[in-house]
Write a structure and sequence with these properties.
With 356 residues, this protein is an alpha+beta fold. Helix content is 44%, strand content 23%. The chain has three domains: 91 residues; 155 residues, Alpha-Beta Plaits, CATH 3.30.70.1660; 63 residues, 2-Layer Sandwich (Double Stranded RNA Binding Domain).
Amino acid sequence: MSQIISNLRIQKILAHFEFLQAKLNENLKNDDIIKFSKEYAELKPIYEHIQKFNKTKKELSDAKELFNDPEFKDLAFDEVSKLEERLQNQEQSLQLLLLPKDINDNRSVILELRAGTGGDEAALFVSDLLRMYERYSDLANWKVETISSTPSQLGGFKEIILSISGENVFSKLKYESGVHRVQRVPETESGGRVHTSAATVAVLPEAEEVDVEISNSDIRIDTMRSSGAGGQHVNTTDSAVRITHLPTGIVVISSEKSQHQNRAKAMQVLRTRLYDLNISSQQNEIASKRKSQVGSGDRSERIRTYNFPQGRVTDHRINYTIYKLDNFLGGDIDELINKLISEDQAKKIAENIYDD
């Protein structure tokens, strides 16, 4: 047994699973049935994997005993080699199954893109990132809705906030939070010099009403006239909604056409930001003990560079480069996301964060 997965941990899992099996055979109240059934369903794949793991261990032990028999020694050598490889693969899979689950992985997200250093070029880069995430969402069959946007004069965005809903959205996009840097010749630059600009990406797990309680006395709601690019009014009535959360000073604006929808969307974003504040506080406590997690959500960290002259994308957290910039900006970002997920899992395992 690996030192990473202790025998004590394994025995506790087996004992608890058998406890759940026994409980589900009793006459339980509906609430208890739901509670124990959910826990049973979550633990069952781990239990079954442990059974396979233990079976392989027993087969390996039996095969090694044949080393002492000259007649079966060569056959035993081949069998032991296969079983050791199988055991190693099963142990790696078990390590992943035992990693603590991120309770937000199945949530939809609020995605916030903002232009950083670089003026108009940074705003144009926000448009590039927007298209990248929209196309990636299309490929994943996710739904994308715009909550608010502030266009720039040259067709980019100073800021745009989206709601992305679907299956396992946060589990994929949470690694995108941070500063994204672009190196290229701006459209506004006639001299052909390469400039460096930046945009910030914030990926927030979408909160539900049960996650955050907001008192009416803690918010101020203002309505104002919606405006599009160039200051043109979208319609002739006041429809944009601005909600100010008085205790924290958080301000949220939703600027679509329907005032009723804007109020609902603005409250959705406010709940999400307040939920994120709580999560960030918890993560800061964890970070003081464990600083190597790739998906830490630190939005001040420069995580990635998009270099147009060299046609490459480099993620600085894992020092990984892809030389297919056009494809990447076209939404083909799964290769990098999967590498980030694997790196994050490997570091969690190495830190023994679930050891007893």
